[in-house]
Amino acid sequence: MVEKNPTHVVIDCNGVGYFVHISLHTFSLLSEASEAIQLFTHLQVKEDSHTLFGFIEKSERELFRLLISVSGVGASTARTMLSSIEPKSIMDAIASGDAATIQSIKGIGAKTAQRVILDLKDKVLKVFGEGEVFLSQGNTNKEEALSALETLGFARKPAEKVVERIMKQTTDPTVETIIKLALKDL
Q1: Cα 171 from Cα 84, distance rounded (Å)
Q2: Domains, in order of start, for the chain
Q3: Spatial CA neighbour of 86 closest among 119, 60, 68, 124
Q4: Model-level pTM?
């Protein structure tokens, strides 16, 4: 690495310097001392330019690719999204339909936020898997119970409210207990 800035790095690859655009998330994960780094890249080819985007994590690159596939979300908007909010939080917001979180990013309006959720909800769950997307939300028993309730055909939002109430009323319930109590209330 020849140069490091919050928005880009210049990487020396056998005497050739590559200007690579990065997100603040990637910048924060680049170690200060390390000269040799590995980035997962995405090359965007346009009529007038070839632009490299680099990511420290493969999952961040995949999320970037999903975001730029949405109509109205370009590479700079996707990079802004990944710089404003942790990639994991973006995946969670898309998977749970949380438009407010996505809309809180500078430059993202209500229509774009809805389009991102609508276009990517199924793709995020397919590419990253439900366990990876919802893992950061805490209690795994709660998440397993919610997943089971969804499989049984219940909508996620009402099920979340019921399960949340059960979690507050019961001390450390098992997955089976959560599901049984939730089925009585749904």
Answers
A1: 36
A2: 3-55 (2.40.50.140), 58-134 (1.10.150.20), 138-185 (1.10.8.10)
A3: 60
A4: 0.66
